[in-house]
Design brief:
Length: 121
Amino acid sequence: MTLIGEHAEISRRLIQQADDEFRKGDTLQASEKAWGAAAHALKSIAEERGWRHGRHRDLFPVVNRIAEEMGQPEIRALFNTANILHANFYENWLPDDMVEANIADVKVLLTRLESLQSRSG
């Protein structure tokens, strides 16, 4: 039912930390934690399948393959939302309500990725 391995554990921990940081009012840390949760969830699947995932840029082909495999192109958009949170960590330009909405989108992404891995593993 869930993502497996070290990356999956990190992903689960980071999404919880994103919520905690947002509640404390630290939208920069919340943004980065949510990004990290998405990245580690993708790394969990990529590692299981033997796909390259060592660098930031490697995650884009991973998410593209997953979106194609699942027949869900919106997976790309959900990942792009996570990537915007990553940029927000450095730039601090997203309003709080957008950070909150984007974290919610990352949770949707994580749920979809979990369902994919449980079907393949």
